[in-house]
Every structure is written in C-alpha cells, then in structure tokens.
C-alpha cells in the first residue's frame, strides 16, 4: 500500500510541476504579447503622426499648384494681349506702309 501511495504522490508532484511549468510559460507568452502590443501601439501612433504630416504636405502642394495655375493663366492672357498688339501693329504696318 505504501509503494502505491508513493507512486501516486510522485505522479501528482510531477503533474503539479508540469502545471507550474505551463503557467510559467503562459506568463512568459503574455509578457511577450504585452510587449508586442506596446510596440504596435507606438507604431500606430507614428503612422498616425505621419498621416497628419502627409495631409499637411498634400494640402500645401495643392495650394502651390493652384498658385502656379493662376500664374500660368495670367501669363496666358498677357501673351494673348502681346500677340494681339503685335498683330495690330503688323496690320497697321501692312496697310499704311505697304
């Protein structure tokens, strides 16, 4: 009877050691998971900040492009006016000089 109880106690002790090892492994896994979640949170914050910077840059670029478009449009009118004045002087020169 004593050897049977002794083997039972030994198997129970081994089972408890296995449970303890498993709990320790789970604790390690949860610590690693917490570290990964913390790192991912930092990455998400950086991505959000980069998105804000990108939005500001895109809006600035859009403003610069609109300013350039207005500049080109006003230059077109200037070129058309110069062309019309030159055509006028050419017509006057052809009618009165020729």
TrEMBL record:
It is a single-pass type IV membrane protein. One of its GO terms (cellular component) is Golgi membrane. It holds the Pfam family SNARE. One of its GO terms (molecular function) is SNARE binding. SUPFAM superfamilies: t-snare proteins. Belongs to the syntaxin family. The keyword Protein transport applies. It comes from Hibiscus trionum (Flower of an hour). Keywords: Coiled coil, Membrane, Protein transport, Transmembrane, Transmembrane helix, Transport. Residues 6-68 form the T-SNARE coiled-coil homology domain. The chain crosses the membrane at residues 77-97. GO terms for biological process: endoplasmic reticulum to Golgi vesicle-mediated transport; intracellular protein transport; vesicle docking; vesicle fusion. The keyword rRNA-binding does not apply. InterPro entries: SNARE (IPR010989), Syntaxin (IPR045242), Syntaxin/epimorphin_CS (IPR006012), T_SNARE_dom (IPR000727). Signal peptide: none annotated. PANTHER family: SYNTAXIN, SYNTAXIN-5. This is Syntaxin of plants 32. It is found in: Membrane.
């Amino acid at each position: 009877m004593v050897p049977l109880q002794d083997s039972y106690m030994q198997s129970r002790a081994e089972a408890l050691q296995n449970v303890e090892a498993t709990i320790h492994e789970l604790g390690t896994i949860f610590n690693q998971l917490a570290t990964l979640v913390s790192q991912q949170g930092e990455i998400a914050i950086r991505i959000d900040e980069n998105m804000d910077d990108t939005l500001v840059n895109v809006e600035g670029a859009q403003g610069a492009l609109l300013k350039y478009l207005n500049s080109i449009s006003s230059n077109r009118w200037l070129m058309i006016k110069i062309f019309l004045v030159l055509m006028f002087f050419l017509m006057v020169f052809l009618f009165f000089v020729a």
